[in-house]
Amino acid sequence: MNTEHTLDQGALAFLEAYLNNAAPTGYEWNGQKLWMDYLKPYVDTFITDTYGTAVGVINPDAPYKVVIEGHADEISWYVNYITEDGLIYVIRNGGSDHQIAPSKRVNIHTKNGIVPGVFGWPAIHTRKDKSKEQAPALDNITIDIGAKDAEEVKAMGVHVGCVITYPDTFHILNKNKWVCRAIDNRAGGFMIAQVARLLKERNIKLPFGLYITNSVQEEIGLRGAEMITQTIKPNVAIVTDVCHDTTTPMIEKKTEGLIKIGDGPVISYAPAVQNKLRERIMDTAEKSNIPFQRMASSRSTGTDTDAFAYSNGGVASALISLPLRYMHTTVEMVHQDDACHVIELILATLQNIEPGETFSYFS
Q1: Are the beta carbons of 312 and 229 closer than 8 angstroms?
Q2: Angular region, 250: left φ>0, alpha ψ -120 to 50, beta rest
Q3: Which of 51, 75, 197, 228 is the most buried (most CB within 10 A)?
C-alpha cells in the first residue's frame, strides 16, 4: 500500500511540535491544547475531564459510539530530596529508566519556568576499583543545576514535587525513522488525529459517533482511560500504543516475540482483546493490502485497551500497536511507514463497522 498521501507537511510539522512539547504524567495540558488546536477543524465538538483527557467528537448525537484512542503523557521524574550541597535526588513518575540518566540534560518545571540541569556522574578516572563499580540507581543519580547549596536551589524555584523532563527533540534518521523521547505514546495521539483529518479530507461519513480520545496518565496505570471510558460509555474501542521492536541486542525473542519496525502495525492477542473485533481488523488489513504483525500479550496488554475492555460491563476492544525501538529512552525510534499503515488501518476498519454491532459470540 502506498503511504505517501497519508501525511502532509502540516501533519509532520504538528508531529514535531507535539513531540517536542513536554507533557509528563499529571501535567499533560499544554500538549493537550496543541492536540486540540490541530484537531479542531476535523471534529464537531470536544469533551474534556478534570484530569486533562481530551476527546474530539464526530457525530456527537449518534447513539452508537466508537472510540479510537492514544495516550498523551510521557515518563518523567519528580524532585524528591535536595541535599545541603544543592544536589537533587529524584523518584520516578512513570517508568523512567535510571540507567540512561547519567550525563543527560534535564528541564525542571517550576512556577517560574524551566530550570535546566544535568544528571551528573563521577568521571571514569575516579572509579578505580572496577570490581566494586556501581551501576546507576535511584540512590546514586543526582541532578546538578549549578547551585552552591540547598538555599540557592530553592531560590531558583525548585522544590520537592517539581516535575522533570528531558529536553531531547524530534529528528529523522535515514529519511523515514522518527526519533524522539515521548513517541510512547504521543505517536498514538498523532495517528488518531490523522484519522480525523483524513475522514474530513476524503469526505468519509461515518454512521456512528466517533470519539477521538487522547487519554492522560497511562504511564502510571491506565488512569485517564479508566476515567474517560465511564464518561463516553463506548460500544467499541480501538486503542493504539507502541510495542517493542525485538530485533535489537539484549532482547530475547523467545519471551518477547519477533516484532520489527518497518514490517507494519502489530495486532495483539490477549484476553482483553475482543476476538471478533480483532479478526475484523485483520480482515480489513488483508483486504486493504496493509501489512501487519501479530503479538501475544499473555494476561494483559499493559495498555489502555485493558481499561476500556473491562469498563461499563465490557466494551469490545482491540489494540493496534506501533513497533518502536528503545522504549522509555530519549531516542525512541519508529518507522514512518508503520505510522502511516496504522492510520490507514484504523481508517479502513472504521468503515467496516456498522451501528448496533455487538461483536457478540452469541448473536
Answers
A1: yes
A2: left
A3: 228
If 0-12 CB within 10 Å is exposed, 13-18 middle and 19+ buried, where does residue 349 land?
buried
User: Domain 9-74+181-350 belongs to what topology?
Assistant: Aminopeptidase (3.40.630)
With a CB cutoff of 8 Å and minimum separation 6, the contacts of 124 are none
Residue 129 is predicted with a pLDDT of: 77
Listed residue (71, 81, 80) closest to 26, CA to CA: 71
Q: Which residues of the chain have pLDDT under 50?
A: none
Q: Classify residue 219 as exposed, middle or buried by CB count within 10 Å of its CB (0-12, 13-18, 19+).
A: buried
Hunting for cell 493504539 — which residue is that? Answer: 240
Within 8 A by CB and 6+ apart from 250, the residues are none
d(CA 254, CA 173): 29
- Tell me what pLDDT residue 232 has: 98
**CATH architecture entry for 76-165:** Beta Barrel (2.40)
- Give residue 37's pLDDT: 98
Quote the cell numbers at residue 323: 513497533
Stretch(es) of the chain classified as CATH 3.40.630.10: 9-74+181-350
Cell representation of residue 204: 468519509
Q: Nearest 5°: phi and psi at 341?
A: -70, -35
Cα–Cα distance, 177 to 229 (Å, whole number): 33
